[in-house]
Design brief:
Shape: globular
Radius of gyration: 19 Å
Largest sheet: 8 strands, mixed
CATH topology of the largest domain: Rossmann fold
Distance between the termini: 42 Å
Helix content: 40-55%
Number of domains: 2
CATH architecture of the largest domain: 3-Layer(aba) Sandwich
Structural class: alpha/beta
Strand content: 15-25%
CATH class of the largest domain: Alpha Beta
Number of strands: 10
Order of helices and strands: HHEEHHEEEHEHHEHEHHEHEH
Amino acid sequence: MSSLQTSVETLLLRAALALPEAAQRALLRRPVVIDGLTLSTEIQMMLKLQGIAKLPAFGMEALPQARASMEKQTTVIGGSQPIGALREITVDGADGPLAARLFIPSSRVGSEPVPTLLFLHGGGHALGSVDTHDAACRVLAEVSGVQVLSLDYRLAPEHPFPAGVDDCFAAYRWMVANTGVLNADPERLAVGGDSAGGNLAATTAIQAAEAGLPLAFQLLIYPVTDFVNRSASRKHFDGGGFILEKPAMDKLHRWYLPDVAQDAAPLTSVLLRTSFPEGLAPAYVITAGFDPLRDEGEAYAGLLAEHGVPVQAKRYPGMVHGFFNIVGAGREAVSYNREIAETLRAALA
């Protein structure tokens, strides 16, 4: 895909999503209503444009093409976002060094030690990178005033479970031990991620508590929490063209967990856990109404609460899976992502 074609698609998407909502509704003619929820008009417009452009379904191409498509599509919806400063660094993984990118917000450049979030990108444990989530991490850092350390953990199928889990926890250990290198406040460290990254953020938080490491907050954005059961929201939305489709989900699932016996492991299906360690960090769980993962994310928030973990949950009813990456087009998802960043700011204030 040429940079010119990407630029043209970006301009067309921005123009369509900048139309007044009434104009968008007139073009779309009929709202999408499922499970008592109405799909956001601008999301409906975006999905319509993707259909017209005949973009490949998420995760359904051969692996190299699927990874390239995710990078291209997140570039289109992410746009070019400002940031105070960037540092490309190397951190310790479980089996060697890993690349990471530190996003330093403008308000924190040159300041005293600052709150810092280890961010773990989504992509079904097999796709995604610091590049696919570059724009989203810039917005998260710039708006929140929290440094964001985005990690390139090892991916399946080349590196199935537990490689990603082990890498993310090793990177968090490294972050705790290297707060001086990062100019990070050791009293205000957090972990977060979206989708598969939300799953890895949850497992990292659990392991941090087990190890007695300081962790102030976990930000779980539409996390995967159950590899065993198929929730009602999966049945409602994993066949309706709402980004995640069952064939791709099944393929990515088995790439990550080639052994069926691993599906219910305590560091994979965190929703099936019967206990949590003392001192587990407070959590903020975000879900999207039209996301197959909606119900398991909300159930995990409930499970944490049942075990005495401070937790808040927020559903964005008209959103789809992946809206965290939509920071460069439209109005609604952009405003929600700023709201998420403000929540992070308040949690680490």
